[in-house]
Amino acid sequence: MSVAEEIRAESYVGFDSITQQIEHKLLKRGFQFNVIVVGQTGLGKSTLVNTIFASHLIDSKGRFTSDEPVRQTTEIQAVSHVIVENGVKLRLNIVDTPGYGDQVNNENCWDPIIKYIKDQHSAYLRKELTAMRDRYIQDTRIHCCLYFINPTGHALRPIDVIVMKKLSEVVNVVPVIAKSDSLTIEEKDNFKIKIREELVYNSIRLYPFDTDEDDEEEVQLNETIRDIIPFAIVGSENNVIIDGKSVRGRRNRWGVVNVEDQNHCEFMHLRNFLTRTHLQDLIETTAQIHYEAFRSKQLLALKEGVNQRPAERQ
Ligand SMILES: Nc1nc2c(ncn2[C@@H]2O[C@H](COP(=O)(O)OP(=O)(O)OP(=O)(O)O)[C@@H](O)[C@H]2O)c(=O)[nH]1
Ligand SMILES: [Mg+2]
């Protein structure tokens, strides 16, 4: 050993193992990821939840093949599964919501959904503020909201604009074109452009947000995802046989849509986006942007309440 090497060996403190320590701790605890699906009735929200859980993420558990037809969802309902991959544990929670839009008066039909999202923030804040707070707080905050758009091929409906605007104030919103098997390739491409234009026109700020950090990798990643959003998806409750293999799909008179085939729809892009490329970022932005905004507003209101009370008494 040379002298220089000897000195290096002696002065080696070993703090570079911190990454392994963090990793070990995180892996043991696992990750919690919460998604909500929102949109007008009958656009395939419940079907997509089932499709996501069935698409190789999880095997043979839950209601993945059903003989019963899907029923209209009547209440906000969470479905949860733990996925383990190479020793990493992910608890995926998908919240299904009742669709709206079939009432004569659809005003404020989105209120229960906004309330649900805010309630999760409020529950988290309450746990954070208790004197004996847990070292690890169970996280039910919604990290991503999939917003279902009717595949009309024309434009967004006024109700979509209103609801997306409201939602984008409290959660990361990612729009998807529902039942995209009903659009031709050209119609789909034009519809995407139209939707993007309308979002800009109505100043609806959706995920991913521009960061001030100029991390080249992140900028690149967000650019590619912006080119795809809104994801044109297809969901299915049933398996079909293609080339002897059983896959999630929809059989029509003129052929079969394979949900997991990237030439047929963008379901796999959406799944990769959620579970591979943007999982951590969605969790982080929820905490740093949406929850932080909620938290500071609540704490400020609390402080004002305390300051006001003596004055009120006079
Ligand atoms: N063509 C086509 N039909 C679909 C697709 N996804 C779902 N469907 C069908 O659309 C109907 C409604 O699907 P649901 O999943 O119940 O819709 P929902 O959005 O949950 O409806 P609500 O619970 O009322 O809000 C069902 O008959 C599905 O089989 C799709 O991607 N393409
Ligand atoms: Mg439903």
From TrEMBL:
Alphabetic keyword roster: Cell cycle, Cell division, GTP-binding, Nucleotide-binding
Cross-referenced Pfam families: Septin (PF00735)
GO molecular function (one): GTP binding
Keyword DNA-binding: no
PROSITE patterns given in the database record: G_SEPTIN
GO cellular component, one term: cleavage apparatus septin structure
Swiss-Prot/TrEMBL GO biological process terms: cell division; septin ring assembly; sporulation
SUPFAM superfamilies the UniProt entry points to: P-loop containing nucleoside triphosphate hydrolases (SSF52540)
Keyword Protease: no
Domain Septin-type G residue range list: 29-301
Domain of life of the native organism: Eukaryota
PANTHER family documented for this protein: SEPTIN
Similarity field: Belongs to the TRAFAC class TrmE-Era-EngA-EngB-Septin-like GTPase superfamily. Septin GTPase family.
Protein name: GTP binding protein
